[in-house]
Each structure stands twice: as structure tokens, then as C-alpha cells.
Amino acid sequence: MNLLEEQQMMQQVARKIAKEQIEPKAAEVDQLGEMPWSNIRLMAQNGLFGVHVPEEYGGAGGDMISHVAVIEEIAAACASTSVALSTQALAIAPFLLAGTEEQKKRYVTPLAKGDVLGSFGITEPSAGSDVASAATTAKKYGDDYILNGQKVFITNAGDSEIYVFVTRTSEDRTKGISLFLVEKGTPGLTFGKKEDKMGIRGSTTREVFLEDVRVSKHNMLGSEGEGFKILMNVFNETRPVVGSQAVGIARGAYDYAVDYVKDRKQFGKPIANFQMIQAMLADMRMQIESSRLLVYKAASMIDRNEKGVAPYSSMAKCFASDTAMKVTTDAVQLLGGYGYLKDFPVERMMRDAKITQIYEGTNQIQRIIIGNHILND
Predict the structure, then answer these.
(1) How many C-beta atoms lie closer than 10 Å to residue 339's C-beta?
(2) How far is CA 140 from the centre of its chain?
């Protein structure tokens, strides 16, 4: 089986389980606001957590295009469920980029198989877009480090078994950042209340507290002071993943809206016959297709290890998430009053879409990144 056939097979598997088993439960997942564990187990059983991870570390050995295609399929059915995949990718990335062989085999393997969940603790109360302002400290004592600090908005916190934290090991703004992995159950690692969110309500988000958390020097990912550089490379690989999630959410809303306008009648005929409706649908479709192509462009650059991927990763994330917000809002408009009701899925999709403009770097930050590359390349 060649690479293209493998890509198509994984996408077909994802589409089948998304349509038949995940989509029917999406409204309930949103309403209950609880982790969709049955969906997580289903994705693990079908090998969806490690699509892009090398086989020697428990993955399928596929490429990044296969990975983003799978996430789009799941997100089109249930955005909350797709967050489990995108967050797992975020947790795996620093291991693949900077981990030792021992760290990869010990931690990536269970993450890639979906046996456990992972989290990446980046954001702090005073360090959001300005990651280099991280105040969580890691102070060296012999062969150990003691971690102290607070993280906010951490996806899967409390449910994950493996955590990677951005910490400060010196006062240097960027060269003072280092990454440490911490296992759940380590003394001093505790979690706050589950946040009550607008969207992706089936994904757990909590604060994380580190109080005198002692870890070995072998828990560091990369070398001391390399954390910021590693993190920027992580974002280059995971922002297209968020882009694919946004494409999926937009596609799900668009598909539902198309079916609706074909059936909904006003003035004696389906509203799909009206040119204003057709123009809205045309714009929605163009935006979705353009977003997907940008995501695939960035993913293909990652697969080929091309230089200069950063602006394309930012473009993919920014354009696709803006598209998701616009398309889902238009879908609500096309359904009229029904679109405003929780009985119809486009209302949920509009709420879910909003976060894609915020996490993995706000879209304002993405535009700054893109602009800097335009002027400095």
C-alpha cells in the first residue's frame, strides 16, 4: 500500500466512525459537558491518535496530511471529540522534536496508542500570547529540579497522565525557558475546577498548580534553555492541526445548512432557489476549500521538512479559524430562528468555532508572525 492509499484509508476510517458513532452523540456531549470517553476509546481502537507518529513509537507511521485529514473528519462530527486528537498531537510534538530515545519509547508510545491522554502546560495568568513571560520556575537541586507555578486553560488537565510544562530556568527572556515532563500523581501536582466554557464543552479545561514538584533532570525535554525554540517548532507543526479542526467544524455546519435550505420552503419554493442564498453558500464553500488547501500546504511542507513553514502554519491556522467562525455564523443565519435553537447543531458549531481563533496563538498573533515574515524574508 502506497502513502496515498494509506492516507485515503485512514480518512475513510475516520469518516465512517465520525458519521456513524460520533456525530449522533455530539449534542449530548455538548449538553453534558463531560469528556466523551466512549469516543476516545473508539478513536484509540482505530489508531487515530498516532496517525503521524512513527511505527517504532506506537503510531501508524503516516504523514502530517493524513493526520490533518483525520482530524477534519472528526471535527466535522464533534469538535469536542476532535480536541482529544489535537491536544494529543500537541503533547506528542515536543517528545518527537526534542525527546531522547528513552523518552519517546516510554511516553510517546502510550500517547500514540491512545492508552493515556497528554497535556501541554503553556499558558499562565500573565503569560498568554507572550509565552516568554512564563513565571513557573524550575530550580536545580543536585540531579533534580523543583517546579513551582500555575498554569491556566490547560486542556485535559486532571484527565491526562502525561504533562509537559513550560518553565523558567533562568532570567533570560527566551533562553531561560525549559520544558519538563511530569507524570500525574507526582506530589505537588494538583488541578483546579473544571472550567464552564462557551464551546468545546466536552473537552476538560482546568488550572494546574505546581507546588514543590520534584522531577529528575532526565525529565527535561531537550537541553536547559532550549524550551522556547522547541515550543516555536511545536507550534509550527500543531497550528495546521488547529486549522484542520476549524475546517472540519466549518464543513459540518456548511453540510447541514445545504441540506436545510434544500428542504426549507418560503414563497412557495425551497429557499435554495434564491440567488442570495446561493451566493452565501458559494462563499462558504470557497472559504472552506481555500482553508483546506492552506492546511494541506503547511502539512506538506512539514512532511518534506521544508524551511520557512512558520508563516504557512500561521496562515493555515488563522485563515481556517476565521473561516470557521464566519461559516458557522452564516449557517445559523441560513437556518433563521431555528439556527438559534440548541435543537439544531449549527448553534453548537458556532460556539465551538470561536476557540479556534484563540488557542494555539490568537489570530492577532498569527497576523504578526505572517507580517514579520513578509518584511524580513
Answers:
(1) 23
(2) 32
User: Which pLDDT score, from 0 to 100, does residue 3 have?
Assistant: 67
Cα dihedral across residues 59, 356, 316, 333: positive or negative? positive
Nearest of 363, 365, 357 to residue 250 by alpha carbon: 357
Residue type, 167: T
Burial class (CB in 10 A: 0-12, 13-18, 19+), 124: buried
CB 308 within 8 A of CB 371: no
Closest among 60, 68, 54, 59 to 299, alpha carbons compared: 68
Cell of 217: 533532570
Distance CA 279, CA 114 (A): 42
Convert the pLDDT of each residue in 82-106 to its tens digit. Answer: 999 999 999 999 999 999 999 999 9
Residue closest to 348 by CA, chosen among 43, 73, 80: 80
By DSSP bridging, strand 177-183 and strand 162-168 are antiparallel
Coil, strand or helix at 142? coil
- Amino acid at position 266, single letter: Q
- Rg, Å, the chain Cα set: 21
- The number of angstroms, rounded, from the C-alpha of 370 to the middle of its chain's C-alpha atoms is 20
Check pLDDT > 90 for residue 1: no
Element holding 216 (H helix, E strand): strand 205-216
The grid coordinates listed for 316 are 493555515
Active site residue 207: no
- What are the DSSP E strand ranges found in 156-282? 162-168, 177-183, 189-194, 205-216, 220-221, 265-266, 269-270
Nearest to 232 by CA among 52, 124, 369: 369
Average pLDDT, the chain: 96
What residue type is assigned to position 57 of the chain?
Answer: Y
229: β partners: none
- Say if CB 147 and CB 165 are below 8 A apart: yes
- Asked if the model's pLDDT at residue 167 lies above 80, the reply is yes
